Amino acid sequence: MPDAAPHPLLDVLLAGGARADRLTHVRTLPAREGVTVDWPTWADPALVEAYRSAGVTRPWVHQAAAASAAWAGQHVALATSTGSGKSLAFWLPALTAVGRTLPPQQRGSVLYLSPTKALAADQLHALERVLAAMPDDAGRSIRVSTCDGDTPTEERRWVQDYADVVLTNPDFLHFSLLPNHRRWSRFLRALRYVVVDEGHTYRGVFGAHVSLVLRRLARLVEHHRGGELTFVVASATSADPAVSAARLLGVESVTAVTDDGSPSGRRTIALWQPPELMSFAFTRSAGAAEGDDDPWALPDPLDASHAEAEQTAVVTADGAAEHPRRTATAEVADLLADLAASGARTLAFTRSRRGAESVAQAARDHLRPVSTDLSRRIAAYRGGYLPEERRELEQAIRTGALLGLATTNALELGVDISGLDAVLIAGWPGTRMSLWQQAGRAGRAGADGLVAFVAREDPLDTYLVTHPEAVFDAPLEATVFDPANRYVLAPQLCAAAQEVPLRAEDLARFGDPAHVRAILDELVEGGALRRRPSGWYWTHAQPAAGMADLRGSGGRPVRVVEATTGRLLGTVDAGSADGQVHDGAVYVHQGTTFVVDHLDLTDRVALVVRRDVDHGTWSREVMTIAIDEPAVEQTREWGPISWGLGPVEVTSQVISFERRRLPDLQVLGTEPLDLPERSLATTAVWWTVPEYVLRAAGLDADVVPGALHAAEHASIGLLPLLATCDRWDLGGVSTELHPDTGEATVFVYDGYPGGAGFAERGYELGATWLRATRDAIAACPCDHGCPACVQSPKCGNYNSPLDKAAAVTLLDTVLSHAPQES
């Protein structure tokens, strides 16, 4: 363990020892000295002078190495820590190129891509400061602008005609810039550098789409001027950054720069487990026999409201009460309030929009008796807020007007918020990359910082706070995405064909030519494309880009509008709308409660009315899954145990919702809903157990559904240990007799059309995955099952039936047939 004293703010968290039993592990990482080098000789002297005037006398070694590699025309993957100055590494060569004639009589141009509009806006402000500091007004000749879906038409025309540097996002590139490439021909002819910031966020279906969008961009640049682009992919520290970047860009060679030369202050990392609570029992009817875990379901009721903190019941199917732990959101709200009261500037990361609202409101409530002014210095920040709201909050936390900000992962990325003292993380953020990215917000710019990871009652969280080596010593993950996914590749090929007809020589740019040609044949057969001797053509009036759902959200978001005023409160992802903003649902915005009066699925709007209520709402969903048997990709046998990997069709429907009183979550009533069925064609991994094996293990018909359901939940919770996903990217179904297998079956599927590579990872590491699942369940001290082991925060059947002991027996039985590891 590094020998360094812990951060003094740890005493604030421990409350003079009153919370000492909640600290499961603490590790203080020592400070790191910075290593600088001389400025590259090729760099624009005026630009170097601007950086010097901003206090950068010499660049960090990784900045110079990445900048020089990019200047030499190499694609670069820069993977260093949060706050290590990655932006200088890509702006130095890019802006130097803009200021020179390459070739003569033509200015170079630069395209900057970030996953969020907020990050692009932040980079614009930083870039404008650098340009303004260039001597002799040299920076005034470099024309810089953001351009995205919010940009007015006249301003967009100016950008097309005059901008040298354009900052945008993959969505605008896909839906607007590339389809209208002729209008952007001046910019594309001059394009030399493409910066892909926060490259580690491009995973799953989103990563696959962005990979193909970037290949379309390179193709169009070649079409307009010939020659190649230089890409710089800036990323959090990750495994195999060069390999991931090469797959993202569709190129063979990428230069990785990973030796971080920036300084770092001491950083104290605390692993924290909330305490057990007094509990009480209440009964309810059991759910459906078939278990299901929906990637679009609402967060856990135990994560629903700040008010629930001290009296929560965890109930098994037979009505027996467990002793649950306090929720992570309630615990983080207390810690945030204590840190704010001590004057510490803190970010509190939560797993959901509802969680961010909950933590902020609870912290305000805790602080109000101490100081009304102090309570006003806490706020929530999340996706779905209007852009002007987000900008105001970012500025307030920068200046210290706010002391605490409860946020979703919207602030995980590189928005420049420095000077923070502490970071609280409510629940595992999905990957170690995200954990360290969030942790890096504490003590930026070389200052000391405190980070506390607060476990939710979740199998993976519980495992991690009791196995610190899995947090600190395990290797970082590699990003997982599959550009060959036909549900991604097919619409992207249509978009490419509309931009410029596809030729045979283009196919290798988009993947294996044989696979690409097979997808094109399907598109021709279905009437999407027309095949001619010269290539493949899009001949429809509507834009092809609309066929692709870049972020896998399930379609256009639903707008949440206050019915009495017409005020837009925010948006909800299409895939979440049925469960979150159905008629009668309670919706929380900045601590204010609204009730949904009507969800209009045609116009994609939920009308809400302001109302104070004493309850929350939780939706119930039914689900079925069917295997596309002719297309099953892989199978294997562990004796009588069968494994499969392949395409499935998941059909789900939100059928009702419960009103539950706060804080005790007592069910007040159930209301039916009339919502349509939703279908998802995706990829699943599954394993089956014959009936005679179950009976031989002592698992009779009464306990099998609960055993399968519990094993399904826990395995979904543990798969993120092995893949770059979190449980919200996954879904599951379990049943004692599935019609396609004829046996008891557990399915875990990717929550995105066509799949995202996560189920495949589970298939590849099946034995490791199920052993970790079995051990996490067995190690939990509860008697009947709880959120820390087998209950799921997104179960569509209200976590019933579940049988913890039978799940351990089931997994022991399955693993007893696994091949012996060599």
Overview of the structural elements:
With 822 residues, the chain is an alpha/beta fold. It is built from 25 helices and 31 strands. Strands 10, 25, 26, 27, 28, 29, 30 and 31 form an 8-stranded antiparallel sheet that branches. A hairpin with a 5-residue loop joins strand 27 (641-661) and strand 28 (667-672). It is globular and about 80 Å long.
Summarize the structure.
With 822 residues, the chain is α/β, with parallel strands linked by helices. It has 25 helices and 31 strands. Strands 10, 25, 26, 27, 28, 29, 30 and 31 form an 8-stranded antiparallel sheet that branches. The protein has a 7-stranded mixed sheet with strand order 1-9-17-16-13-15-14, with helices on both faces.
Secondary structure elements and their pairing?
Elements: H1 10-14, E1 23-29, H2 45-53, H3 61-71, E2 76-79, H4 86-98, E3 109-113, H5 117-132, E4 144-146, H6 153-162, E5 165-168, H7 170-177, H8 185-190, E6 191-196, H9 204-225, E7 230-235, H10 241-249, E8 255-257, E9 267-272, E10 291-293, E11 314-315, E12 321-322, H11 328-341, E13 346-349, H12 353-367, H13 372-375, E14 378-381, H14 387-399, E15 404-407, E16 422-426, H15 432-439, E17 449-454, H16 459-466, H17 469-472, H18 486-499, H19 513-525, E18 530-532, E19 535-537, E20 558-562, E21 568-572, H20 574-580, E22 586-589, E23 592-600, E24 605-610, E25 615-627, E26 634-638, E27 641-661, E28 667-672, E29 678-689, H21 691-696, H22 704-718, E30 730-735, E31 744-750, H23 758-764, H24 766-779, H25 804-815
Parallel strand pairs: 2-7, 2-8, 3-5, 3-6, 4-5, 6-7, 9-17, 13-15, 13-16, 14-15, 16-17, 20-24
Antiparallel strand pairs: 1-9, 10-30, 11-12, 18-19, 20-21, 22-23, 23-24, 25-27, 26-27, 27-28, 27-29, 29-31, 30-31
Helix pairs in contact: 3-4, 9-18, 11-12, 18-19, 22-24, 22-25, 24-25
